[in-house]
Specification:
The protein is α+β, with helices and mostly antiparallel strands. It has helices at about 5-15, 25-30, 55-65, 75-85, 100-105, 120-125, 130-150, 160-170, 230-250, 255-270; strands at about 20, 40-45, 50-55, 70-75, 90, 110-115, 175, 180-185, 205-210, 215, 220-225, 280-285, 290-295, 310, 315, 320-325, 325-330, 335-340, 345-350. It is built from 10 helices and 19 strands.
């Protein structure tokens, strides 16, 4: 029997949910093991009904975990309508599309929305198998970085850096990047989400490399590469590094997410750069690169063993440069494990 479905059913009983309609492919992968692109899942106390189409008939036989009843459908609309009439009282997740929601609402006797994010609550705590898959992607991210590093030179575009890095991660075992690779050089480094562009990396530019890779689970790492010499970037990096370490040293079971954020934020504020740190400290990582919990001033989640979060403080000076450094840590019984410890440095220098 699928242990994750059993845990979900326990939460459903606690929250008075008779039938949960799951549409997120990440949630469906988590609960069933299915890696295709289209499927729906209805979970009740007695049944787990998985719907997909004929493209995946053979794939379903290989991938679906135990306790899941698969149905190959010819017409999704007709099948969803039949399920709405069958299950009657249906709760949808936040990922449910408007089209599917309206269809369910029109035919079911009662509909609601899962305000407790039950699947997200389960996904926050990773088991040992999940942690192993995440570690694999940090090793692939590191190998990709090391093998791409000879190409991290001035005189070429940010896009060139990103393309080489993504190629090398795939050669190291990843399937895709976790997200659009951020390669922000010089003044573009002041944009926290400065995706790689056609800008030429100039001599002495500080380059923020925020990237990751995915097979079934994700990695997310940020390092600074200086294409030459840049005294200001190194000074800012020292402050950011200290903020990162102070925050990561505080990660342990029982710590509150908002408190971890405050530790890093207060330190950067004490150095006079508070207004230049303009985003959350971190986020969960797993099947998706952005998951719960979030390290910000509003998230009161209490950390538990198995939770995986990034710690990524930054300082962004408009018109000049930006510095962000990032580790990802897994909460352990007594502290945390740095999954990005495969990297030797935080600041690298190239030509």
């Amino acid at each position: 029997m699928n242990s994750r479905v059993l845990k979900l059913r326990g939460l459903m009983r606690q929250n008075g949910v008779g039938c949960l309609f799951v549409t997120s492919m990440s949630d469906i992968y988590y609960l069933t093991g299915f890696t295709g692109s289209t499927a729906f899942l209805f979970i009740t106390d007695q049944e787990a009904l998985f719907l997909t189409d004929g493209r995946y008939e053979e794939q379903v036989k290989e991938e679906l975990t135990g306790g899941i009843d698969a149905e190959i459908v010819k017409n999704y609309q007709e099948s969803l309508q039949a399920c709405a009439l069958k299950y009657k009282d249906i709760t949808v997740t936040y990922s449910c599309g408007l089209y599917e929601y309206e269809m369910i609402k029109d035919l079911a006797e009662k509909t609601g929305v899962d305000k407790n994010n039950m699947i997200s609550a389960l996904r926050m705590v990773k088991d040992e198998g999940e942690l192993a898959l995440i570690r694999d992607m940090y090793r692939a991210a590191h190998t990709g970085f090391v093998n791409a590093f000879p190409c991290f030179v001035s005189g070429v575009t940010e896009d060139f850096w990103a393309a080489e890095l993504e190629k090398q991660m795939k050669l190291a075992g990843a399937k895709t990047p976790s997200f659009e690779t951020i390669t922000a050089s010089g003044y573009r480094g002041a944009m926290p989400h400065g995706a790689a562009s056609r800008k030429i990396v100039e001599k002495n530019d500080a380059v923020v490399l925020d990237y990751g890779c995915r097979l079934s689970y994700c990695s997310d790492v940020t390092r600074l590469v200086i294409a030459g010499e840049n005294r200001l970037a190194e000074e800012i990096a020292d402050i950011v590094y200290s903020a990162l370490k102070k925050a990561s040293d505080a990660v342990r079971p029982g710590a509150v997410c908002s408190d971890i954020d405050k530790i890093a934020r207060d330190y950067i504020e004490s150095k006079g750069y508070g207004k230049y740190f303009n985003h959350s400290l971190g986020h969960g990582v797993g099947i998706d690169v952005h998951e719960k919990p979030t390290l910000n001033s509003r998230d009161m989640t209490v950390l538990e063993p198995g939770m995986v979060v990034t710690i990524e403080p930054g300082i962004y000076l408009p018109g000049e440069l930006g510095v962000r450094l990032e580790d990802t840590v897994a909460v352990t019984d007594y502290g945390c494990e740095n999954l990005a410890a495969v990297f030797d440095e935080y600041v690298y220098k190239s030509k």
